[in-house]
Amino acid sequence: KNEVEQSPQNLTAQEGEFITINCSYSVGISALHWLQQHPGGGIVSLFMLSSGKKKHGRLIATINIQEKHSSLHITASHPRDSAVYICAALTNAGGTSYGKLTFGQGTILTVHP
Amino acid sequence: DSGVTQTPKHLITATGQRVTLRCSPRSGDLSVYWYQQSLDQGLQFLIQYYNGEERAKGNILERFSAQQFPDLHSELNLSSLELGDSALYFCASSVAGTSGRFYQSEQFFGPGTRLTVL
């Protein structure tokens, strides 16, 4: 079992739909990243959060530390949101300051017009 | 634009060869991370440097090595290349506080180097 699991692996939506991508982790973490990777390959950091909720435009990320679960929501989805979304846990090993990211397998999102 | 630069963008080479990938972190960032993204393994952490010193190691092969120079740029050296080394190699950088608090530091990714080994 992977330390960071995402669901679904593939997601197809119509423009305007509300989208949710889930991430569960089994490791101890300091924070969780949500990343976006476009077909060209570049990776963009969308959020880093360690508690609660963050919002940026149409994107919302939440995290529940007790349940070891995070979600990424996209409101009013648009074809330009089509990309791979990756959650990555910033692990904190035994209290040591440690910057390793452990990645989920990614969710391929396709939004049709 | 994250402010992290990587060169070259693409690299095509043959098995058995050696290549060097270069990364310049964002201005002010002391920490550099190297990641490999292959089709079968996904994204994996290779190694981290902080202010010139190796900080953490992940799934990095012995044929691979890295260093961070006094100007904070970093190089990843891949030798005795195999077909399976074909992948996207990303570096990321983060600013760490004076106490090296990596767990508080968001990482910013470079555009990646696509390595193809023929």
Supply the key terms:
heterodimer, A: 113 residues, mainly beta, 6-stranded mixed beta sheet, 5-stranded antiparallel beta sheet, B: 118 residues, 7-stranded mixed beta sheet, 11 strands, 0% helix, globular
Brief account:
The complex is a heterodimer of chains A (113) and B (118). Chain A is mainly β and 113 residues long.
Low-confidence stretches of chain B: none
Helix/strand/pairing class of chain A, anyone?
Answer: mainly beta
Strand composition percent of chain B? over 45%
Secondary structure tally: strands of chain A: 11
Cα(first) to Cα(last) distance of chain A is: 36 Å
Integer average pLDDT of chain B: 90
SSE-based structural type of chain B: mainly beta
Main sheet attributes: strand count, strand direction, barrel closure of chain A: 6 strands, mixed
Radius of gyration of chain B (CA) equals 14 Å
Tally of extended strands of chain B? 11
Percentage of helical residues of chain A?
under 10%
Largest interface, with counts of residues having CB < 8 Å to the other chain, equals: A-B, 23 and 32 residues
How far apart the termini of chain B lie comes to 31 Å
Instruction: Give the amount of beta strand of chain A, in percent.
Output: over 45%
The overall average pLDDT of chain A, rounded, is 90
Task: Give the SSE string of chain A.
Answer: EEEEEEEEEEE
What is the overall silhouette of chain A?
globular
Low-confidence spans of chain A:
none
Query: Major beta sheet of chain B, specifics?
Result: 7 strands, mixed
SSE order and pairing:
The complex is a heterodimer of chains A (113) and B (118).
Chain A: E1 4-7, E2 10-14, E3 19-25, E4 29-37, E5 43-49, E6 52-56, E7 59-64, E8 69-74, E9 83-91, E10 101-103, E11 107-112
Chain B: E1 5-7, E2 10-13, E3 19-24, E4 31-38, E5 42-50, E6 53-57, E7 64-68, E8 74-78, E9 87-94, E10 108-109, E11 113-117
Parallel strand pairs in B: 2-11
Antiparallel strand pairs in B: 1-3, 3-8, 4-5, 4-9, 5-6, 7-8, 9-10, 9-11
